[in-house]
Write a structure and sequence with these properties.
Helix content: 25-40%
Bound molecules: S-adenosylmethionine
Largest sheet: 9 strands, mixed
CATH architecture: 3-Layer(aba) Sandwich
Number of strands: 11
CATH superfamily: Vaccinia Virus protein VP39
Distance between the termini: 47 Å
């Protein structure tokens, strides 16, 4: 209760939204993804181009059911609303309470098929006091119910045991012809898994800032989950991440 009162008081003192090209955006201090997204146009147009790519690469339409894991403060759903409008079902999930709370208060009331859920899963960077992912991990959504699962810049901040558990879930949650779009740091000729690697030409700061995998290691996790890589774009995403589309094997 006290937390809600504090949050409302903060919102009165400092606005939580800005309006850009007709879309409600999170205020700058609530955005994930680096300094680049402090600019309203950069934030909105990045969400729009991710939405267009999902339409082109993964067949996203107004009839689709989409699960957006690590939705942050709504960059993708805002982009979808701008380029496509309402879709049949959008479910955002995140471990970060502030992010989910912002989306639930500023997106769902205007667009009821866009829903947000906070899960208390541990992530050393985003939710250190959460519950560790266990062997029998399940995401709290119905199975075979999503045409598409999306994770932008999420596996880039997770270690392999958690990623393996999530990938196993994806095979259970997508429809038989469904797909998964994700980004991750994946390179040839590097060690299997490394946190904040020193040889990437960038100074990473803090826990799980960058978790990088070798292509062999990453592909093995995908096939263990009963999935295959259907499309890949190397090094084209934030900070040099690669984009992957996965389907059921
Ligand atoms: C770099 S941000 C990306 C946010 C958003 N996908 C975007 O591209 O704007 C990473 C997001 O992943 C979320 N996250 C980290 N670990 C997670 C987990 N195990 N399950 C769900 N979300 C997670 C964080 O809370 C954060 O919102």
């Amino acid at each position: 209760m006290l937390r809600i009162i504090k949050r409302r008081a903060r919102a009165l003192l400092r606005p939580e939204t800005s309006l850009h090209r007709g879309q409600i955006l999170p205020e700058k201090n609530l955005r994930f993804g680096g300094v680049h997204f402090l600019d309203d146009e950069a934030f909105l147009s990045a969400g729009e181009s991710d939405a267009r790519r999902l339409m082109e690469w993964c067949g996203l339409t107004r009839e689709s059911a989409l699960l957006d894991i690590g939705c942050g403060t709504g960059r993708l759903p805002i982009g979808i609303l701008s380029v496509l409008g309402l879709i049949r079902r959008y479910q955002g999930i995140d471990v970060n309470e502030t992010a989910v709370d912002w989306c639930a208060r500023h997106i769902t009331p205007l667009h009821p098929s866009f829903r947000f859920l906070r899960i208390n899963v541990q992530n050393e960077r985003y939710n250190p006091s959460g519950k560790a992912v266990e062997e029998n991990f399940r995401l709290p959504v119905p199975e075979h119910s999503f045409d598409l699962i999306h994770l932008y810049s999420v596996f880039s901040h997770m270690r392999s045991p958690d990623i393996q558990a999530y990938l196993r879930e994806f095979a259970r949650l997508i429809t038989p012809k469904g797909s998964v779009f994700l980004t991750a740091f994946v390179e040839d000729n590097v060690s299997g898994e490394e946190e904040n690697p020193a040889d990437g030409g960038r100074q990473w700061k803090g826990a799980l800032h960058c978790v990088r995998f070798s292509k062999t290691f990453f592909t093995a996790m995908i096939s263990r989950a009963g999935l295959v890589i259907a499309r890949e774009s190397h090094g084209t995403e934030t900070d040099g991440q690669s984009a992957f589309v996965l389907r059921k094997a």
